[in-house]
Design brief:
Layout: H1 3-21, H2 28-42, H3 49-64
Helix pairs in contact: 1-2, 1-3, 2-3
Length: 72
């Protein structure tokens, strides 16, 4: 895998992990989609629209899961 594709994959994982652990509230999915759109725009050709929609669905599912973040 090229460095660019590997960095892109790591960024996608970071977005999804960040959303699933975030306690930012209702706006976190909207923010996650925004960051995803920035990532895709900065890396043209790495994702087609179908894959982008699939990742947006994963983001929505991550938002629905209860955060496993440690709470005091």
């Amino acid at each position: 895998m090229s460095d660019k594709k590997e960095r892109f994959q790591q960024a996608l994982e970071l977005i999804i992990d960040g959303l699933s652990l975030s306690e930012a509230g209702a706006g976190r999915v909207k923010a996650g989609r925004y960051v995803l759109e920035l990532l895709v725009a900065d890396n043209p050709g790495l994702l087609d629209s179908e894959k982008t929609k699939a990742i947006q669905s994963i983001i929505a599912m991550a938002e629905e899961q209860e955060s496993p973040a440690f709470r005091l």
